[in-house]
Amino acid sequence: MYSQAEENYLKTIYNLESRQGSEVSTNLIASKANTKASSVTDMLKKLAAKNLVQYKKYQGVHLTELGRKSALKVIRKHRLWESFLVQKLNFKWDEVHDIAEQLEHVKSEVLIEKLDAFLKYPKLDPHGDPIPDAHGRTILNKTVVISAMKIGSAGVFVGVRDSSSEFLQYLNKKNLALGDRIKVIDIEPFDGSFHIETRTHRLVITKSVAENLCLKNVK
Amino acid sequence: MYSQAEENYLKTIYNLESRQGSEVSTNLIASKANTKASSVTDMLKKLAAKNLVQYKKYQGVHLTELGRKSALKVIRKHRLWESFLVQKLNFKWDEVHDIAEQLEHVKSEVLIEKLDAFLKYPKLDPHGDPIPDAHGRTILNKTVVISAMKIGSAGVFVGVRDSSSEFLQYLNKKNLALGDRIKVIDIEPFDGSFHIETRTHRLVITKSVAENLCLKNVK
DNA sequence: CGAAAAATTTAGATATAACTAAAAATATAT
DNA sequence: ATATATTTTTAGTTATATCTAAATTTTTCG
Ligand SMILES: [Mn+2]
Ligand SMILES: [Mn+2]
Ligand SMILES: [Mn+2]
Ligand SMILES: [Mn+2]
């Protein structure tokens, strides 16, 4: 079907497009993909030729329906493999992303359907991200990032926006785990850092950390 | 570590070398790898530069100790993944080879050790092939191919030399499965075909099929 | 042995997916 | 609005892994 490079671009464009609405720029893709703008341009032309993106020179891209569906298939595979690694092989949530980056490119429809069944059709991956079903549908997971919360409000920590092992290891060290109830105690006006509280402890997190923690049932 | 192409060549050379003793020729590798002799020559130079094979122009290659160990690692991964696919995901033995060809190239030492533990350290894969342990050691699996047997001798069918889905589907159709007791009833002098008998039925197999069925405890 | 056949290597080309440096288009700011 | 800065594209290069066709070496055989 598509090459690994193509699949990785589809995923990157999909993620940028969801968290952004509008057209995605060449430079933005390049920085997320750790590559150069000129490489991105080359690939965008190739993806456009395959009807995966709509591309107008200098105007950025957005995914076509085919591109969106293809991206969701890759994301489905990535998240199912991450679930497998944590649930069945006893990996920790901060250890699975890089391995799933490789496993997601294995080509076999029946493999992924059998894996899904083996895992009993999980709805969320180990990072709280929704797993698309075979048709690309996900449950809606209405969450609020801490950085958007007001002093005194609280919710349940159910997801992260950054699944890098560095960030997850930081959360481990700070004793923050999915399922924790978190309350915003104070917001520092000077640097935008957040004073938060869990059932067991209080701590201060920077604004950029606060932007990557997703809470549910915020009141 | 090594590229997919390099790993595939190592596996091919390892298999040819085991079933052959002596140096492996360029053309033989080319035919097994479904590629051209000139491509093989290019790759042999690269493998030699990485100290994976000993290569003398026009004289064929054999694996170095590093090459042998590296090949066994790939074979270990291939057979563990095949075992996973059959034992955990309910694939049939004729459906797993091509998927394992992809999975075997996933890079992660810890992944394969955890997979091995999850499967409870299997010693044989679904085709009766021994699975090397983390140090490259395998149980000895002393078998005889039917084509080497005499009329009247019998044994237990424990392995195949060809794991292609075409061959395995042929065996399914002929109702031959691992564990069956097989007896040689007659050998046709004209074309070398074998008349064999299981507990449940008799059939005739060609010489080339007989060369790919491995039996244990032959008497 | 020496010629013909077979096997192997070399030379040159192609495709993919990167890169750097330069050119072109777009955005911004005075 | 025009000059400057930023973004994006183009042109040309590199590395990997293939291929075909031609040259070279080895093997086989009369
Ligand atoms: Mn991930
Ligand atoms: Mn994830
Ligand atoms: Mn196999
Ligand atoms: Mn096998």
Query: Ranges of chain A with pLDDT <50 over ≥5 residues?
Result: none
Q: What is the percentage of strand-forming residues of chain A?
A: 15-25%
> Overall mean pLDDT score of chain A?
96
| Level-2 CATH architecture of the domain at 144-216 in chain A | Roll
- Could you tell me how far the N terminus lies from the C terminus of chain A, measured between alpha carbons in angstroms? 46 Å
Biggest interface, residues from each chain: A-B, 19 and 18 residues
What would the CATH topology of the domain at 144-216 in chain A be? Answer: SH3 type barrels
Bound small-molecule species: manganese (II) ion
Q: List the quaternary state of the chains.
A: homodimer
Q: Work out the number of β strands of chain A.
A: 8
Helix count, DSSP H or I runs of 4 or more residues of chain A = 8
* CA-based gyration radius of chain A: 19 Å
Percent range of helical residues of chain A? 40-55%
Can you say what the CATH homologous superfamily of the domain at 144-216 in chain A is?
Ferrous iron transport protein A (FeoA)
Q: What is the name of the CATH class of the domain at 144-216 in chain A? A: Mainly Beta
Q: In terms of structural class, how would the helical and strand content of chain A be classed?
A: alpha+beta
